Amino acid sequence: MNSDSHHDNDIPAQPDPATGPVSRHTWRNRLLVVVVLVGVVVALLPEALRFAAVTWLDRQPELSARLDDVDFNPFTGLLRIEGLQVTRNGEDVALAELVEVQLDWWPLFKRRLDLEQVTLGNVLLMVEQLPDAPLTIAGLVLSREDSLADETAPPSTGQPWGISSGVVTCDQVAVVLRHRHQDTRIDIDHLTSSPLVSWLPQQAGALDLSLSVAGGTLRCVGENYPFARPARSEMTLDAQNLDFETLDPVLTALGWSRTRGHVDGHLRVQASAAVETQPARLKVEGQLSGKGLASDHAALWVKQLDLSWQGQLEMLFDHNLHLAGHHRLEIGPAQLVLQQPGLEVASGQLIWEGLLTLNGQIEVNGTVEVDDLSVLDLAGGTTLLGVDSGRIGPFAFSSPGTLSVDEFSLARVTLLGRGDVALPRQPQVFSLAKLTGEQVSWLAQQHLSIARLHLSGLAGDVVLLPGGALEARQWLPQFVAQASPQQGDARDDSPPLAVVVGAFVVDGNSQLVIEDQGVTPSVRLHGDDLRLRLGALDSRRSEQRSSVALDARLDAYSRLHLLGDVALFAQPLSLNLTSELSEFQLPSISAYVERGIGYRLEQGQLNLHLEGPVEQGVAALTSQVHLKRLQLRPLTPEDELEVGERLGLPVNMALSLLRDRQGDIALQMPIRGDLSRPDVAMGSIVRKAVVGAVKNTVTLTLAPLGIVAKAGQLVGIGGQLTFQPLVFEPGSTTLTSDSLVYLERVKSLLAKRPQLTLSLCGQVSVADRESLLNSARQRSGETADSTVLSQEWIRQLAMQRAEYVKQLLSQEPLVKSSQLLLCNPPTELVDGPGAVLVRL
User: Fold this and answer.
1) Please, are residues 403 and 380 in contact by the beta-carbon 8 Å criterion?
2) Cα of 512 vs its chain's centroid, Å
3) Rounded distance between C-alpha atoms, residue 599 and residue 626, angstroms
4) Amino acid 38: pLDDT
5) 702 and 715 in contact (C-beta within 8 Å)?
6) β-sheet bridge partners, residue 103
7) Which end of the chain is more exposed for a tag (fewer CB within 10 A), N or C?
8) Residue 533 — very low, low, confident or very high, per pLDDT cuts 50/70/90?
9) What average pLDDT does this structure show over 416-424?
10) 559: nearest Cα among 580, 575, 543
């Protein structure tokens, strides 16, 4: 049974003759229908896709679309779109002559979207970002509601999707960026990108991109790692002839107008995105140059600017921006106008090379070199500063305002130019052959320190206007003049600027011209071969004394030497000086003397020794004055009388008493007075000193002759000073012994003062008559008649006595007979002894 059953099972089943053939035919028909349907679907799918796309685009507000052809092969994954045009209100917002996308189906089963190749040809895309409007691409509005970012994503249940961009090729692709102020067209002339694969994060994606933008070209070549951690990129950028004028509408909206110029450059850029352990990083290295740059702004007018930058820069982006790098910046030629202060800054070339860091504060260091720098005041048309060449540094600057400079050197410097002026006025107030400084520090507008400041080849031309103001002030820019404190201004409680200078030196054939227009005619003093040295200046210590040494040649023969110390910042002034002035021509300062004593200096030469202190503005100076060949002329008769009253005798007589045999005058002249008092003029102090010195010298000269001061006046004031009479023995022409001694003093005075002229007036007295009568009685024994002493006899005796005195005085070789004048003798008898009266 088992065996039968086994055999029964081995017998094959026979088909049912009623149902078998019908089933096979049915399946074949079904399969055929499926194949036909698939073929129809495949055939109609591109047109369906084209129709659906055009219909959807046409339904968008204000859009209309045209799509010539869509070809899609689901078996190969190739999608091809040709002749796409999307317009909005008649304007093209998207054009595509060719778009090809090659999709690999099989990676989809591994949750990977693999676009093997993307090709774009002759494509135009409009991107719009207008104020108060959402981003629009190809006329399609991307609003926040369209974003999936706010939607709750379903929880991930498996491997995340990956993506591969494949090879991307673009040819003749244009993107128009429309924003508030203009349309910017960017032409992608060429783009080739190797695959970017998310599941191979360390695989580099090569990029070769060529753009036409802003009238120039920009090429970007490098490698991208968008899926690495951190994402990074390494690129080389080459820019050629990027024209700023194409950005003029944008810059105009920002306040800049008439913009022009172009930029070229070659940069190597490395960038990395932020991750948990490190911030985003950007490193730029290479060079940039701008030529013919110009633009106009309310604050700054860039009339001309060429610049180039070379260096490297690294930036870190965390909570704050951190920046560091080495730079070389060359500017020039440049011409900039600072509109608010009204200054024009021009430079042939300015080079800065050094480091720039930003880490909470800005720090800059390095060196600066400058050539042909000038600062022009536009309102006055004058050059405030000019520098032919210079070097500053090494220096270091850190915000908010700390600067230190190891040294600086500026050559051929001009300050405060006058513009077109007539000779002999030089065209600037100051010029320097060279200006150098060492160890300079500046601290936030509070402290300025210079170890050594050296001015070589100084040429100064300073003018004091009537009233004492400096002429140079009128050429200061308006904002500087307004910054100067004026009477009535609110009190500034901020600490004053502290100035510390270790040494201040002027040398190198320097010269200084000072013209004082406050007197008439103006006084012009010229100092050549000027050498000045000041030491240890500190404005914080007003009582600190600074050593001073000055040497200058005032003309071809005159020199000035000065040594001492001065408290330069003390108020009032304090100093202690010793000075020597030799062979100075007095007519050059006649205007000061005219104002001081009322006399004009017609001729004369001054040698002066001055020394002593000025403490707290109070002068206690002594001077030794030596005047050679001095000649004075009074300005008015009233001036002559006033000075004569002050002296106690006429000025010409005083000068005759003062002059020595060479016609020179030596005076000891103390100068006393409070220079700090505004109601005391320097002229009055000098006038008082001169008058006092003359009176003292005249008094000392005449004291041996018995002519002394009395109650502040000289005995004999009124036109003639009378010496002691030269007394004769009664009735004779013989001087008494005392008169002979006195005569020697008169003779010495005449020898020392050759310009002094004496009047000799003989006289006969009653005593002479009595003596002669007694002698006559003794000889005759009779009574003599007094009538024999006639007037003629009196006149003859008086003349004999005067001639005798002149003869005795003329025996001195140094006394000239022209110094002795005989007066008309009297014919009347006088009381007292007979004598010869000597008068000036």
Assistant:
1) no
2) 21
3) 18
4) 66
5) no
6) 115
7) N
8) very high
9) 61
10) 580
Strand blocks (E) in 557-693: 559-567, 574-585, 599-615, 618-634, 665-674
pLDDT over threshold 50, residue 808? yes
Give residue-wise pLDDT tens across range 121-170.
888 888 888 877 888 888 888 765 544 444 444 555 556 777 877 788 88
Dihedral sign of CA atoms 59, 62, 67, 68 in order? positive
What are the two backbone dihedrals, phi and then psi, of residue 182, each rounded to the nearest 5 degrees?
-165, 170
| 8 A C-beta contact, residue 512 and residue 527 | yes
Segment 309-326 shows an average pLDDT of: 89
Side chain identity at 410, as an amino acid letter? L
Convert the pLDDT of each residue in 241-272 to its tens digit. Answer: 888 787 777 777 778 888 889 999 999 999 88
Strand order in the sheet with 820-822: 726-727, 835-839, 758-763, 820-822
204: left (phi over 0), alpha (psi -120 to 50) or beta: beta
Residue 192: both structure tokens together:
């080739």
- What is the sign, positive or negative, of the torsion defined by CA atoms of 340, 342, 343, 344? positive
Closest CA to 623 of 672, 584, 588, 663: 672
Helix (H, G, I), strand (E, B) or coil at 423: coil
Return the pLDDT at 491: 55
If pLDDT is split at 50, 70 and 90, which confidence band does 576 have? Answer: very high
Share of the chain residues as helix, strand and coil, in percent rounded to the nearest 5: 25, 50, 30
Structure tokens belonging to residue 9: 């099972």
What is the C-alpha separation between 175 and 187, in angstroms, rounded?
A: 6
Mean pLDDT of 510-536: 87
Provide the residue type at 126 as one letter.
M
Backbone angles phi, psi at 493, to 5 degrees: -90, 0
Token pair listed for 126: 């409009």
> Helices marked H in 453-551 — which ranges?
478-483
Q: Which two tokens stand for residue 241?
A: 């002839």
In this structure, which amino acid lies at residue 184?
Answer: T
Cβ 584 vs Cβ 559: under 8 Å: no
Q: Which two tokens stand for residue 772?
A: 């002669």
User: How far apart, in whole angstroms, are the C-alpha atoms of residue 119 and residue 117?
Assistant: 7
pLDDT at residue 456, rounded to an integer: 94
Distance CA 392, CA 516 (A): 37
Distance CA(627)–CA(665), nearest Å, equals: 5
3-class secondary structure, 793: helix
DSSP per-residue string spanning 281-338 = EEEEEEEEEEEEEEEE-SSEEEEEEEEEEEEEEEEEESSSEEEEEEEEEEEEEEEEEE
**Bigger pLDDT: 831 vs 411:** 411
Confidence of residue 120 (pLDDT cuts 50, 70, 90): confident
Query: 184 pLDDT band (50/70/90 cuts)?
Result: confident
Question: What radius of gyration do the chain's Cα atoms show?
Answer: 55
Confidence of residue 412 (pLDDT cuts 50, 70, 90): very high
Q: Please, what sign has the CA dihedral across residues 326, 332, 337, 343?
A: positive
